[in-house]
Amino acid sequence: MLLEWISGDFSIAKWTTKRKIEDLDQFSFWSRTDKELSLVCPTNKLPNDVEMNEDGWKLFRVSGKMEFSLVGILSQISGCLAKQKISIFAISTYDTDYILIKEINAKLAQEVLESEGWDFVE
User: Fold this and answer.
1) pLDDT above 60: residue 58
2) Whole-Å CA distances, 85 to 46, 72, 100
3) Binning pLDDT at 50, 70 and 90, where does residue 65 land?
4) Interatomic CA distance for residues 40 and 82, integer angstroms
5) Buried b (16+ CB within 10 A) or exposed e, 14-30
6) What is the mean pLDDT of residues 78-92?
């Protein structure tokens, strides 16, 4: 399977109070639970009213659509990175998985994954 970097710098944010989800006209991932509303988006699109946020993330995805019958893809990726003490923030959508890595670890993460047989789309 191929991995693909999404260009730009990303932030992870949250609200614990009511807030409307908005269209940011770019990549964004909103998740609402009974406890919080979370957002992953390009740092330059981060709304001003976030309660908490963390900047400095890079993002890649498993390229293409993944069948629901596939097992262990995210586990394989996170396991390779965990061995090198690289933490991740993972997002799964209907089609694929997205993995955020702190910018300081992005190059090492790619090297580690490539050494384990993963390829990155150029």
Assistant:
1) yes
2) 28, 19, 14
3) low
4) 22
5) bbeeebeeeeeeebbbe
6) 95
- What is the pTM (predicted TM-score) of this model? 0.88
Please name which of 69, 73, 57, 65 lies closest in space to residue 93, comparing C-alpha atoms. Answer: 65
Q: What is the pLDDT of residue 66?
A: 56
Cβ contact 65:54 at 8 Å: no
Give me the domains of the chain, ranges plus CATH numbers. 2-120 (3.30.2130.10)
For residues 100 and 102, give the distance between their C-alpha atoms in angstroms, rounded to a whole number. 7
Coil, helix or strand for 48? Answer: coil
Residue 13: in which H helix or E strand, if any? strand 2-15
Task: Report the length, in residues, of the chain.
Answer: 122
Alpha helices in the chain (DSSP H): 73-83, 106-115
Query: Which residues is 12 bridged to in the sheet?
Result: 40, 54
Q: What does the angle CA 6 – CA 115 – CA 112 come to, to the nearest 5 degrees?
A: 55
